[in-house]
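Morning. Coffee machine broken again, so started the prediction first thing and wrote up yesterday's gels while waiting. Chain of 120 residues, entered below exactly as on the submission form.
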Amino acid sequence: MTTPERPVTVGDVTQSAVAIGDNAHAESHHGSRTAPDPLVAELLSSMRALRADLARLSGDRYQALEAELSETERELARSGRADPSRLRSLRQSLTGSQALVELFTSAGALSGALTAILGA
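Came back before lunch.
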């Protein structure tokens, strides 16, 4: 014997997301997207390049830098901006990793992008 289907009523779902069933997933994106800031786009690109370079290294030497890059990238991708104190901290981490800056041109590019946003 089958279970009778229950009626489903959906009210107003304006600016909403609905997911029904096992493993259902819903996403909703609202608002108008403004053109990305070219400096932020350059910063994101530089961060992604450095993260790719760091992935080629073995060991945990730059694990803290990778974590900081990852968190800042998420913040920039989500909101289009990052807290200036986070950017200053990232720049300080890069400065402390001078050997890394010399090893990868991506680190130098990121350092330049941070300077463009934060100033000298």
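The chain has five helices and no strands. Going to sketch it on the whiteboard this afternoon.
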